[in-house]
Amino acid sequence: MKKTVSFAVIHFFVAFSIAYLLTGEILISSLIAMIEPMVNTVAFYFHEKAWQHKALIRSGFANPGRKTASFAVVHFSVAFGVAYLLTSDVLVGSVMAMIEPAINTVAYYFHERIWQKKSAQQAAKEALGHLACHHGKLRECADVSDITVDNVATSN
Fold first, then answer.
1. CA-wise closest residue to 21 among 80, 100, 79, 89
2. 86 with 32: CB under 8 angstroms?
3. Helices 2-23, 90-133: inter-axial angle, 10-degree rounding
């Protein structure tokens, strides 16, 4: 859930900025900035669930580039739909659909890389914690948040 919320914050900021530049209207920009990211945040959640399928992860297909391209298609569609419905202007909807998702797609790629790095670091910490547990440190195994490679090396 933290991952979804952090991406939503980025998305809200980008959506409002682009909508305001296109329309010059705070109310319409605010509505676009609220509705479009909310719809995309829900889509993001389900997109994440789909990409976490074990078979997809094992296939090696779930790299950040492919995952980003997949979400970009969803995002372009939602951006156009929301902007068009709120402005009744095909041009504003089209420009919003090209600019806002393009910026958020780049943001999504870096966001995904950061979260994958965090996940890998957490997995390494847990592995070090289990390693420390097997060397007579069972009482210290309850919390692995403070375990580092140096702690394990000096305790063995």
1. 100
2. yes
3. 160
25-32, long-range: CB < 8 A, 24+ apart: 28/86, 28/87, 31/86, 32/82, 32/83, 32/86, 32/96
Write the single-letter amino acid at 116.
Q
**What does pTM read for this prediction?**
0.56
Q: Tokens 């530049």 sit at which residue?
A: 21
How is residue 94 written in tokens? Answer: 């089209």
For tokens 């990211």, name the residue.
37
Give, for all 156 residues of the chain, the pLDDT tens digit: 788 888 888 888 888 999 999 999 999 999 999 998 889 888 889 988 888 877 766 776 767 888 888 888 888 889 999 999 999 999 999 999 999 888 887 888 898 899 888 888 888 888 777 666 655 555 555 555 555 544 544 444
